[in-house]
Write a structure and sequence with these properties.
This protein has 14 helices and 20 strands. Strands 16-13-15-14-18-19-17-20 form an 8-stranded antiparallel β-sheet. The radius of gyration is 21 Å and the shape is globular. It has helices at about 25-35, 90-100, 115-120, 155-165, 195-200, 200-210, 240-265, 270-275, 290-295, 315-325, 370-380, 395-400, 405-415, 425-430; strands at about 5, 15, 20, 40-45, 60-65, 70-75, 80-85, 100, 135-140, 150, 170-180, 180, 185-195, 210-215, 220-230, 285-290, 300-310, 335-340, 355-365, 385.
Amino acid sequence: MTEVWRNWAGNQSARPAQVTAPGSVEELAAAIKAAAEADRPVKAVGSGHSFTAIAAAGDAVMVRPDRLTAVRGIDRAAGTVTVESGLPLHRLNRLLAAADLSLTNMGDIEVQTVAGATSTGTHGTGRDSGSLAAQIRALEIVLADGSVQTCSATENPELFQGARLGLGALGVISALTFAVEPMFLLSAHEKPMGFDEVLGDFDELTAVNEHFEFYWFPHTDRCSTKRNNRSQGPAAPLPKFKAWLDDDFVSNTVWEGVCRVGRTFPGSIPTIAQVASRAWSERRFTDQAYKVYTSPRKVRFVEMEYAVPREAATTVLRELKALVERSDWRISFPVEVRTAPADDLWLSTANGRDSVYIAVHLYRGTRELGYFTEVEKLMTAHRGRPHWGKLHTRDAEYLSSVYPHFGDFTALRDKVDPERRFANDYLRRVLGA
């Protein structure tokens, strides 16, 4: 028997029939062909950082990407880097930095594999730059029949359009080519602000800053805002001790203890929130892009995130605050708000519309008590699109109504995986059988 696989948050698990860790695209193709002969489903897993069951499947052949981590090449003239699918983002960031290169944008953690992050729509915040998947220029994928296909905007363009953000439903990605640019510095300005002040200035804050996001602390009127903009330098990183104190010790070690207290004594959470909302003071620093975009996240939680139309964002946020205030919930985690420009990826949460992401969290082991359920009702009332890797209850009927190219994606799936070799319960729910 294989061991039980669990995701990072511990809320999803599976016992696969077989686990394989191919070291080349040829070995990956052979594993998929063997699974087809045995009539077993195939699921690739990455770091397990999704909160949904997108990577879980019992009685399946689980493909682990641990050995698919090679850097196939850097093309400075084209401004691209090609890496294998299992390379973690933190290694990609450092190899690019060593070559004086950078991704244009990224999320706030870097533990995911490149294929796992792009296939679920991982994103950061940006006025002009979109998700990791939007930065893909080509990819290599093994389909259900074991064939190895390469695709780009000019080669197999239909497959490229679907597979850049494909949920693992079309095949197993073996390599990705990302657009990169010369390494740049970001100047970070982090500042506490009031909730009404942030929403009142939201249009200006998102217009004048390349990367703006904020956290609102439930049970308070306080927010922590982050503005990241390109800088000509010089670099002025946080002192090592200050960086460790703020971003590791306070944000992880102390925060873990605070969350445990709140879970045990829910009545203390409003007071904790008042204190916590004042723990993050104003600060400025300038550093290499990936060091500003990302920070350690060690406190484990579960999360729901929806993308709502840009024009609906402040309305949704005010309704969310009112929802929390009239409830009996005790919410220890802040609500995270980020932005993204419209893109053309069929299953991107920002497809065809400028979007604002609103994420809600619960510390692991905390009783849900209707928080996620009611937040989801609010988001869907505004045609929200759930993050594919974060908790939600939407199905194919709803999702087809908010994604203009949903039918294009499912038609492509019918073409490349008619026997549903890569299906699992989650994909049957969100894409249909």
